[in-house]
Amino acid sequence: MKKTILLILSIFIWVYSYSQNDTQTNYGQVSGNFQSEAQYYITDSLIGAIAPIEKTLANSWANISYNLGNFSAGIRYEGYLNSILGYPNSGGKNDGVGFPHRWASFAVDKFEITLGNFYEQFGNGLVLRSYEEKMLGVDNSLDGFRIKYNLTNGVYLKGLLGKQRYYWEHGPGIVRGFDGEIQFNELIEKFAESSLRISLGGSFVSKFQKEESPIYNLPKNIAASAGRIDIRYNGFALNSEYAYKINDPSADNDYIYKNGQAFMVNASYSQKGLGVVLSTKWVDNMSFRSDRNASLTDLNINLLPELTRNHVYMLPAFYPYASQVKGEWGSKAEITYKIPKGSLLGGKYGTTIMLNYSRVHNIDKQAVNDSLPLDAPGTLGYKTSFFSIGEELYFQDANIEINKRWNKKLYSNFSYVNLIYNYNILRGTTGYENVNAHIAIADITYKFKPQLALKSEIQHMYTKQDEGSWAMALFEFTIPNWFFTVLDNWNYGNLNENHRPHYFNFGFGHISGGTRIQLTYGKTRAGVMCVGGVCRNVPASNGVSLSISSTF
Known about the structure:
Helix content is 5%, strand content 53%.
């Protein structure tokens, strides 16, 4: 690692020296960012918060990149001293400091070559998506090389080879991938100005993992492939992708030898004042990791995009949906309509109404034979028909939002959400009822002056399951360069009358240019955080948090 960092720095110095001798005196451009999240923890038995022995934990990272013409390079420093609670850590593997990310990229003619760490996605990510999501602690970057080649106008090729990041090390598997895409409107000159836009793409990804098992005959090379199409015509758009993966016994599927597949379709229509989105997804045994024994968010090669809505408000986010790699069917419909300005309901500024509905079920599975249970290790596991739909409901979300600006100073957003949440499936537990929650939200902002505003949120969730009903209130006051926040989240409907805590939070922050600093004291409820269908557990906590971010 140290030799690699020295190599990157040497390239920086060489490029800088070269630019010094250039008559144009082009020194290139350096940019970057820094962020640090620290928390001092306090034990609170009422909410189940336990302070770590360190008392204070912090996650920090900084990126520095350099660009000059067709050359670019960068490094990232990270420090976890130690990792904040709930952050993926796998027994302390994430604690420490260092430079886990370094890269260099340059373009020559029709080629672009990247060496070191990089992120990549093929199509919708069904067979490959390497990405970073700091909120979840996900970073499955590839360390190796990637080549992009523009064969001709409209024909784009990618190839890559590398190992995935696993905390401060690499996972045991080698990932190899190829992707090609044809943009017909660029390839065929007479279609360049056509309103009909068509592209086709295909991907192939394989992993190699050498591992001997005293129980199973495990395949060392696992291949997955996918094909996709994207069609656009005026306001219409259709995107679809199908993926297939050969048998891949792993901890995710109880070491069965069944092949996997996934299929998704997204269709949309938009015009002035109207937008419609219809989506469906079907997944069967599509876990794909560079280590068959990994779990949670570690070493995922692919990502199965979720169809359900990512709620930004606190109470609906209590019950987020996590994509089920073993099998799921889902569908979504969303309509956004803006009532015109000047109409009776639209008023002076217009009114926007958004309707969203999503539903996810299991897939229908049958036993391979009557003598074996479903998912029996070392067998084919089960059989199913393409696009079969099971009877068990995993998740349902029906919601409506009404956004309206009343005048130059007053803006409101009113929402209603109904969630049905299969607690046992989505939390990996037994003995719990499905949660049926009704949530109402009022979000109102009043601007006294352009940089002087008061934002208020009132939320209420009624449910008889899990922890019962909640009420939440937030007030945020903004003045130039400063903001102040007070929040209370109250579990008033807990079935245990002796356990109805308030989760108070209050804090303030300062913004100056590209720098933001926020200091907060408060309590956090234990739960689950999800982004894009990928989730991590969040433990209960009580304490003081400091957040600093800056860009240059």
